[in-house]
């Protein structure tokens, strides 16, 4: 009887075993729809699961590495306009831009007619040591011809730059030589300076042009300030026009040189980045030196930290046009394959509490990308009245002057873009690159004569006797730009400024080039006017003084209470958040 009872359970046991086998089979077969849905519905695993499914099941073979490389930028583009992905092949070039040096052969070059033309040889660099000269044309690299359509700026940089101590062989054509000259160059460290000019613009005032905020910008500025102080500088112009930013730390250190102790410079704050304040420590070398800062629509990020701190602390006068409007802080994060991302982790705020980040929408925001063009179209470059300040984002400086957030630093003194003398003939010559091409050709053909002149003043005096504009007109006509005498002479001053400047740059250096341009630059001339009148230190507004001062004092007091620590030079050096 007991045996019969046992036999009754056999079908049930078999059925359960079959079901269990089916379930186990489904689990290990990869055809487990419900279980896969559970995994996919987990946000942290969804993307990995999608890639695995594509790799396993897609109809055609997929290069998963390429797919991921293409997907990474798209994902970051959905966050904000400045979070970005940098492929491994591009990372070194991106980082070199903000380092104090890179490894290469030490030349400045342009590409003309599909050939590398050497403009300048860096003094003391590897190329000068072996005898390479300005005017040489590179036609071979490592025993292979390097001319024609293959010669692009990126390809030339890739072949000429390389690890320190490595060799590169160049075949060079030099005018006057019947055969190619061959040089073997040992690559070395090439200075990559960010301060392009530092000189006394007249007998009283100095001028410093800062192209970017790199690892070495702060010590470069200390050297520049020391040089100007030795020449009894009584006031200084800091030119940040076109400076797109860089590292936050150097910008903070540089502002510190101009502020007394205990002044807030900037603070940062993000969802997972608690507020951190950076204040002056009182060790600056020039806390009372009159200062004017020049900005324009190309001044962004770290440039806005610098100019915003000067403006909010009423330390100097800001002159020019409204800055770009970038108030997002990116942290570099590298991957094991050599690629990296620049991820936005915080916003930065000026001392008055302004976040000057201009509005954006998540995703591919065409309006954000077109903002500068839109400003131009609306006339903002030419009239201060065209600029609409956001009254809902009003803040106050230390003495009660109203300033506005929501989109860049508005200068204290507006200087419009100079359009005097612009004609269609001039615009076409510039847009087609004809002035640059002519300047290079003229320099190349007259290099021996031009080498006699060692300063911009001497060279300018010579160029004014050479009928340069007429020679340009003939050159432009040979390139298809019909001669228009009336328009050409209406734009004569612009043409001469452009052509003389390019030739001076080709033969001398950036500082000489800027010295020449600054002689007639309306923004620089306005800065000199302010310094001469001893009006670089802003004054409190005359209306609603009491109310605005009370509000300003309250803001400063609240800021001081939340202040964590003053900035020290060693601390700032470590804060190399990238802001561009």
Overall description:
The chain is α+β, with helices and mostly antiparallel strands and 580 residues long. The protein is 42% helix and 19% strand. It contains 23 helices and 21 strands. The strands form five sheets. Strands 3, 4, 5, 6, 7 and 8 form a six-stranded antiparallel β-sheet that branches. Strand 15 (291-295), helix 10 and strand 16 form a beta-alpha-beta unit.
Keywords:
23 helices; alpha+beta; six-stranded antiparallel beta sheet; six-stranded mixed beta sheet; 580 residues; globular; 19% strand
Topology:
Blueprint: H1 2-29, H2 33-40, H3 43-57, H4 64-77, E1 84-86, H5 88-96, E2 101-104, E3 107-112, E4 115-121, H6 126-130, E5 137-141, E6 144-145, H7 153-160, E7 167-173, E8 181-186, E9 188-191, E10 195-200, E11 205-210, H8 217-230, E12 235-239, H9 248-256, E13 264-270, E14 273-279, E15 291-295, H10 302-312, E16 317-320, E17 328-334, E18 340-349, H11 366-369, H12 371-377, E19 394-396, E20 402-404, E21 413-414, H13 424-431, H14 434-445, H15 447-450, H16 456-463, H17 468-478, H18 485-490, H19 492-507, H20 510-518, H21 522-532, H22 545-562, H23 569-574
Parallel strand pairs: 11-12, 12-15, 15-16, 16-21
Antiparallel strand pairs: 1-18, 2-9, 3-4, 4-5, 5-6, 5-7, 7-8, 10-11, 13-14, 13-18, 17-18, 19-20
Structure summarized in a few sentences:
Helices cover 42% and strands 19% of the residues. The protein is an alpha+beta fold.
């Amino acid at each position: 009887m007991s045996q019969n009872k046992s036999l009754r359970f056999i079908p049930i046991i078999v059925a359960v075993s079959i079901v269990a086998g089916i379930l186990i089979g489904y689990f290990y077969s990869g055809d487990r729809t419900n279980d896969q849905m559970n995994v996919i519905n987990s946000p942290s695993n969804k993307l990995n699961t999608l890639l695995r499914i594509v790799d396993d099941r897609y109809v055609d073979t997929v290069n998963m590495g390429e797919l991921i490389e293409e997907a990474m930028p798209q994902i970051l583009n959905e966050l904000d306009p400045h979070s970005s992905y940098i492929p491994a092949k591009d990372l070194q070039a991106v980082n070199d831009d903000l380092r104090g040096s890179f490894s290469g052969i030490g030349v400045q070059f342009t590409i003309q007619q599909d050939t590398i033309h050497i403009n300048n040889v860096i003094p003391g660099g590897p190329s000068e040591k072996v005898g390479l000269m300005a005017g040489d044309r590179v036609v071979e690299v490592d025993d292979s011809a390097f001319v024609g359509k293959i010669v692009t700026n990126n390809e030339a940089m890739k072949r000429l730059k390389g690890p320190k101590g490595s060799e590169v062989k160049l075949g060079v054509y030099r005018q006057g030589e019947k055969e190619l000259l061959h040089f073997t160059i040992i690559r070395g460290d090439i200075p990559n300076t960010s301060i392009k000019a530092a000189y006394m613009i007249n007998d009283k005032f100095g001028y410093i042009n800062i192209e970017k905020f790199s690892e070495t910008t702060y010590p470069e500025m200390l050297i520049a300030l020391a040089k100007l102080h030795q020449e009894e500088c009584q006031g200084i112009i800091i030119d940040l026009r076109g400076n797109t930013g860089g590292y936050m730390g150097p910008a903070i250190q540089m502002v510190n040189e101009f502020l007394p102790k205990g002044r807030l410079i900037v603070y940062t704050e993000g969802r997972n980045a608690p507020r951190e304040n950076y204040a002056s420590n009182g060790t600056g070398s020039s806390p009372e030196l009159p200062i004017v800062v020049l900005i324009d629509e190309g001044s962004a990020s770290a440039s806005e930290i610098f100019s915003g701190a000067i403006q909010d602390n009423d330390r100097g006068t800001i002159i020019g046009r409204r800055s770009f409007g970038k108030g997002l802080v990116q942290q570099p994060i590298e991957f094991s394959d050599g690629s990296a991302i620049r991820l936005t982790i915080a916003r930065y705020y000026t001392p008055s509490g302004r976040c000057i980040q201009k509005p954006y929408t998540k995703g591919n925001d065409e309006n954000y990308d077109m903002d500068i063009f839109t400003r131009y179209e609306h006339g903002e470059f030419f009239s201060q009245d065209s600029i609409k300040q956001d009254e809902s984002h009003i803040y106050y400086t230390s003495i009660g002057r109203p300033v506005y957030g929501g989109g860049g630093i508005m200068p204290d003194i507006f200087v419009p873009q100079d359009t005097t003398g612009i004609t269609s003939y001039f615009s076409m010559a510039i847009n087609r690159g004809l002035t640059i091409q002519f300047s290079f050709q003229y320099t190349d053909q007259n290099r021996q004569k031009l080498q006699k002149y060692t300063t911009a003043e001497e060279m300018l005096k010579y160029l004014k006797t050479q009928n340069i504009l007429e020679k340009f007109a003939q050159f432009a006509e040979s390139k298809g730009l019909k001669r228009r005498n009336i328009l050409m002479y209406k734009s004569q001053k612009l043409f001469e400024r452009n052509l003389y400047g390019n030739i001076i740059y080709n033969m001398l250096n950036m500082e000489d080039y800027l010295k020449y341009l600054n002689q007639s630059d309306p923004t620089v001339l306005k800065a000199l006017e302010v310094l001469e009148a001893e009006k670089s230190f802003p004054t409190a507004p005359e209306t609603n003084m009491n109310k605005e001062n009370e509000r300003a004092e309250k803001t400063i007091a609240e800021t001081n209470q939340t202040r964590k620590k003053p900035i020290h030079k060693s601390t700032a050096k470590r804060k190399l958040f990238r802001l561009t």
